[in-house]
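Contributing new complexes? Match this layout with pyridoxal-5'-phosphate.
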Amino acid sequence: MTQAKEETLTTSAEIFGAFIERSWRSNAERQLAKGAEFVIGRREGVYMWDVEGERRLIDCGAGGGVHALGHRHPEVLQALRKALDDGRDTGLWSVPNAEYLKLQDRLAELAPKPSLNRSVVTLCSTLSVDLATMFAFRVTKRQRMLAYRHGYHGHTGFAAIVTGSPEEGIIDHYNLPTHASFLENFGDTEELDRLLTKEIAAFIIEPMDYETFAPAPKAFLETASRLCRERGILFIIDETRAGLGRTGTLWATEQYDIEPAMLITGKGLSGGLYPASAVLMCEDIYEECMNQHRFAYISSLGGNEISCVVASQVLDVASSPELLENVKSVGAYLSGKLDEVCQRHPDILTKVSSFGLAISIGLTSRDVGRALYREIFAAGVLCHSVSEIDPPGLKLFPPLVLTNEQADEVARALDKAAGLVARGREPTRKSA
Ligand SMILES: Cc1ncc(COP(=O)(O)O)c(C=O)c1O
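Output block (do not edit by hand):
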């Protein structure tokens, strides 16, 4: 029997301890092993403080894009507060509301291709991927998906089935049906050609390598788009992380000559304040799936009024020329500064690659990456992660509102961390 505990958890250590005792132990232990014992207290913009209010970190993980606009973006916060003060709540799923329509219209207006003029709003990208897969099964009358082996699209339903990563995938763990084939090599057009068979309903792919942040090669995505069209396969672009300005354009898709049948957005669409995601799609798919069954897709909370208000505000900020310009200029500035650090530590750092503000610092090994992650955390920067596949890289995914001064702080922290890690690899310290 679980009994309610009479305890106040105030410190990071107490909260970690309680998690290990009676909650998601394996996750808390994973954070500890990474050297990231941290529980968020106050947060604002690119900064987070621990619950003790003593440590301040620059958030260069941004929850994989949830906090793409920084923590508690003032305009998004204001829109949320106003919606609540105006007397709104989630509304009723079955009753049309203007905010839903407004968000759909805004998504159609901002879509990377005019054909993506319809959308379904959901609570998170996992649900959007799930829905997009069901739509693909109906439209094509096929039941098999193709995805990238090291990609990630979510952890329940059909999203889990297209997440085949050896590290984060859970197909074997839950003994899930195997309704997907996997492309082993990101960017390999020949392999793709072989795998896009007549059984495949849809090919789902991020426009950047999930593990390394390398942008999808143009020829690869453009061939994928063409082959899918020729073979009656739906081409689904998952812009959960790459969208909303991350790569310097509102959608990464804008940088390619492709025609996706569906596009998924999420994470940052929530403003980090209220869950929201959406599947953008062509009108014919929408009509066939949503309007040929009276209960085609019911979600009590998906597309609720508050989330639509928040998501519309996020789109306004993310599509603004100021934000997109900031991504390009700070992205270039930060990459340049990090490259200088790489040149100072050639024994452990190689070179920087970036896709807007998705940045990877090349490493001589993954072990170096783990040590760096720990040291840079101690120096005040929370990184996204260390890539699990080659080339080894320490990855940064900072909020898009990062300034040059904050970029300098990140570069200084890397320099300090790299110095410590490089010294730790010298023979004298090794044998100590
Ligand atoms: C590319 C991609 N798609 C889908 C998802 C699932 O999103 P969520 O966990 O918000 O449902 C994620 C989450 O990391 C993601 O990175």
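Reviewers usually confirm one structural detail per submission. For this one: Confidence is low (pLDDT under 50) at residues 428-432.
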